[in-house]
Structure formats: structure tokens, C-alpha cells
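2 proteins. here.
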Amino acid sequence: MRFSVAGRAITKGWLRVAHSISSKLVILLVGLMAGTSLDGVDAALVRISGPAAAPRARLLEFVSVPYPAAVRRRLLRVAAGQPASAGEISQLNFLLGTLFADAALQVCRKAGVARGRLAGIGSHGQTIFHQGNATLEAGRKISSTLQIAEPAVIAECTGAPVVANFRTADM
């Protein structure tokens, strides 16, 4: 089963993962994170064990995978607010999805864990825009944020369920 979840609906995705915790003694998850430095993606493989009411987490492996220089330059340009078409942002979204998936697979290989053993992947995505202070838009106060690294691509490449777009819930 593959899925991606946005914003507050994230609870549904994590309920599926929590169900896995309660029905298995041990599950493996990968967390993916990219920061505002736009230099690459970090992947952590963790083991969650114990009962659902009191799970324990243990870091099994960690990798930091730098973006190719040309990708970083494009991200820096877009994040700086320089003109970019919707097509370019869409292409970056899918490209980053493959790079995030590669990082997830790399951390699994480094740990000697088959990707089929993953219960799920949590992906923050790469922030390319963040407007925390509300502005007036069409008569409404609007805050917004945009993270890219397409969760459906990550799911397709890894074969694992993906929960993503966490930051949207903060707005």
C-alpha cells in the first residue's frame, strides 16, 4: 500500500504506522530531512519496538547525501525568489523525490536492511518557500509554506508507504 498525506490529514498515515507498531514487535522506519542550507538530504533508519503505548526508538543508521552541485544551484535560485516556471518547480519536485528515495535506499543498504522490511518513510521535503507571517490575500490572512520532494515518487522508488508535508500543519 502506498500513500502520501498532506498537512493535518497526516494523522491518518501515522495511524497506519501506529497500527503496525501494535501488530508487530519491531518495525523499521526511515526519516528524511533537508534543511534550509539546501545542501542535501539526511536519512535516518530507526527501529521502533515495544508496545504501542510505550514504544522505544533506536537509531540504526544515518547518512547525509549531498545534492549534486547543479541541483543545489537550481534550488538556491528558486528559494531566493528568482523567477521559475511552474514546470521547473514541478521538475525539481520530482527530481528531489528521486534523490530523497535514493537517500532512503542508501541508509537501508548501509545498515544491511532490505527495503521490503520498511514499515514506512517520513519525509519533510525540501523547503523552497516559507511565509510564516500572514499577509492579506484576497481579503484573508494567509501564511504559506512549500516543500518539494514528491512523496509519490519516494513511495514508488522505495516500495514503502510515505507520510509527508509535515510543515503545512504548522501554518
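next one coming up
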Amino acid sequence: MPIFTPIPQEQFVAHVLALADQIGVDSWAPSYLIGIGRGGLVPATFLSHATGLPMLSVDYSSQVEEFAEGALARLAARTQGGDKLLFVDDINDTGGTIGRLRTILAEQGAVAGSIRFATLIDNVRSAQRVEYHAETIDRAITKDWFVFPWEAVAPQSKLADDAAAVPERTA
């Protein structure tokens, strides 16, 4: 059974504000924040309020790629018109989600340099890198399953199932 580590609301807000600060001092300015469903929707909403940037969303957590691909194709097309998109997620753990999104966006013709990623937590051992993060972990050391405020209402069994989906994260 994994160790469940709750992320308190105050820590979550501090992470969002840290991301807002990083974005605010960077010369690369996003046109839109894109919340990645499901874990990135709440952080993106808070980040939108903190930065004043408009937010869109894409549902990737459903694993129904044809649903996500339509939205991603439209987002890739926006980059061809000059928009810069900052995708927001809760954690860059294995890099699977970010890597797949980058691949789909590239296949759909997204302009290089117009896509970036921000996460609350970044695993240094991830297969993908993000441009903005509030906290860094090393999965070789930190095996905890982080429970973000919006997940606190989930049954313990569902959290355990999610953690077990990729056992090397918590083993």
C-alpha cells in the first residue's frame, strides 16, 4: 500500500503563486493556459486567476484519444496563428502524459517553441522536462502518492488504484 501524502490547500496555493511568479518574470508570455484534465484543471483555474491569463482545457485523463485529439488539433492550429500555449498539470511524474501531448501536438502541426508545460510537482527522473514547476521530487527517493485537495474526497480504494497504475512510482 502506498504512502498517501495530502497536499494542504495552503501548500497548493503557494505552489500556484510560485508558478505565477515564474511565468510573470519570463519573457515568453502564454496566450492561454491549458488545463490538462483531470489533475491540471484546478491548478490551471487558480493559475488563471493568479495571472489574469485566459484558460482553456483539454481532457486527456479519460484515455479516449479521439476526444482529446480534436481539442489538441484546434490548439495546435492556434499556435500557427501565433498563440503560445502553457499546459498545466498537477505532477510531471513519469512524463507519459506530457510526452504524449507533445507528440500529438507536433503531429497536428503545433509551432515549435509555442508550447510549454507547468506542473506543481516535477519528478527529476521523468522522461519529460517542464519549463515551470513549484516543487521538485526524485522518485528514487520520494515514493509517496500525493493527494491534492481536489482528490481528498476520493475513496481510499480509488487512490490506491490510481497509485497502482504505475507501480514504479510508489514501489
